[in-house]
Amino acid sequence: MDPAHNICMPGDVLIVEDDPMISLYFEDTILGFGARTVRTAANVARALDLIAAHAPDFALLDVGLVRGETTFAIAERLDALGVPYVFVTGYGAEIRLPPSLADKPRLTKPCSIDALQAALRQGHSAQPQ
Fold this sequence. Notes:
The chain is an alpha/beta fold.
């Protein structure tokens, strides 16, 4: 891969997604964009463990996980650490986020490759270098 291609990409991306096929799609696509590493979690506890071990440069958060879990606690932790993220949801604009998270970026599943790439670039460029 051309080194200039991944200059605007985060190096380490965390994906929190409970559907293994969607998670694998995001992982393969993001690695194809030039990210060095992609870590995945299917639940809140695992995601918080991964963040505690090493904060990512960027995260994709599926809003609703199995058994009624939401990724709001993960978003709050990432906010505290200054890590950019985007919510990814199949519920579209109808999804209700807590007021403290209502202005955060969202992608609707399925999202285009261009929209995903733009979200990662925008999040990475907003992060202090």
